[in-house]
Amino acid sequence: MLAGAAALGLMPVLPLSAGTAAAQELRYFRLATGTTSGTYFPIGGLIANAVSNPPGSRPCDKGGSCGIPGLIVVAQASNGSVENIELLRSGAVEAGFAQADVAYWAYSGTGSFTGKPAFEGLRSLGMLYSEAIQVVVRSDGFIDRMADLKGRAISLGEEGSGTLVEARLILDAFGLSETTVTPAYLKPGTAADRLAKGELDGFFMVGGFPVAAVSDVAARVPIRLIPIDGEPAERLRRSLRFYIETEIPAEAYPGTAPTPTLSLGAELLTRADRDPDLIHGVVKALWHENTRRVLAEGHPKGRSFDPAKAAVNVSVPLHPGAERYYREAGLLGNAANETDARAPVLEPPPAAKP
């Protein structure tokens, strides 16, 4: 129950004896996730459950938490990648999720963070999984390809989300923009609801499929996913190393066909000034076999978590505590697995005001 409360962002009240309190000093670790209808929030809740280790927890060797004794991880809902970066910058949270390109731009003060101070103290705990760019439309809406979005009412994601960053890039690559569609800036759940009601023609979503918002609308009306492929997609891949060619499989959502698209890594981030021993303990607990089992059983995307890939091609430097764990685990130290935070920068098109 306590771990569940942590995942929901509640501060539990603990009946501690004096001896227990002395043995384990309680510490809270705030994890910024995403919207409740996306992927970051449920994944963050599972991580919070698995890494929290409050007094009285079942021992690790008996299937319990393998986290730092006395640590309670609190998963907080947010607007997503961009807001999470700003929460980290201000020190309001200890860790947060972000898309790889958003993290790199924040670190270097480029791209969507042009004009803001470079967040040189941003550090990575590792790459967790890939998340796909999904353009969702109704099957009866006569939209089959990206060009058909012209003049349509499309939600690009809310301000502060990584979805909005990617939507602007994708539109630009296909010769569109916020001025050639009728844009809305909505949370995924709201966009899905309006699509189902016929009040929207489509919406962008970035997340590890299946995403709750897309599953919800697919259960109400027939949908299709629009391909993101061809020369525009290739141009993006050549310009920005974080994009990966991906296919969303058939029936990822009810009735959908195999759909080519682009994906990018979902990264867990922190600040350089966080205690190395604390971060080492968090990363060690994150990749413990007990945690990986919880993730695999708790969300379809949890099955793709792979510690062997976590430290490869991260978008910003690893935190020293995380780097120590990966070296101890034999996941760093050779040329194939060394990280590289350098990347070519792709400037997104100017942001139009909603």
CATH topology of the largest domain: D-Maltodextrin-Binding Protein, domain 2
E-strand count: 10
Q: Can you tell me the CATH architecture of the largest domain?
A: 3-Layer(aba) Sandwich
| Secondary structure tally, helices | 13
Largest sheet: 10 strands, mixed
Helix content: 25-40%
Please identify the top-level CATH class of the largest domain.
Alpha Beta
Mean pLDDT level:
87
Instruction: Label the overall shape.
Output: globular
Contiguous uncertain segments of 5+ residues: 1-23, 334-354
Radius of gyration: 20 Å
Structural class: alpha/beta
How many domain units?
A: 2
Strand content: 15-25%
CA(first)-CA(last) distance = 42 Å
CATH superfamily of the largest domain: Periplasmic binding protein-like II
Write the layout of secondary structure elements.
Layout: H1 2-7, H2 18-23, E1 27-32, H3 40-51, E2 71-76, H4 81-90, E3 95-99, H5 100-108, E4 122-138, E5 153-155, H6 162-173, E6 182-184, H7 188-196, E7 202-207, H8 212-218, E8 223-225, H9 230-239, E9 244-248, E10 259-271, H10 276-286, H11 289-298, H12 307-310, H13 320-328
Parallel strand pairs: 1-2, 1-3, 5-6, 5-7
Antiparallel strand pairs: 3-10, 4-7, 4-8, 4-10, 9-10
Structure description:
The chain is α/β, with parallel strands linked by helices and 354 residues long. It has two domains: 2-130 and 265-337, D-Maltodextrin-Binding Protein, domain 2 (3-Layer(aba) Sandwich); 132-264, Periplasmic binding protein-like II (D-Maltodextrin-Binding Protein, domain 2). The chain is 32% helix and 19% strand. It is built from 13 helices and ten strands. Strands 1, 2, 3, 4, 5, 6, 7, 8, 9 and 10 form a ten-stranded mixed β-sheet that branches. Strand 5 (153-155), helix 6 (162-173) and strand 6 (182-184) form a beta-alpha-beta unit. The radius of gyration is 20 Å and the shape is globular.
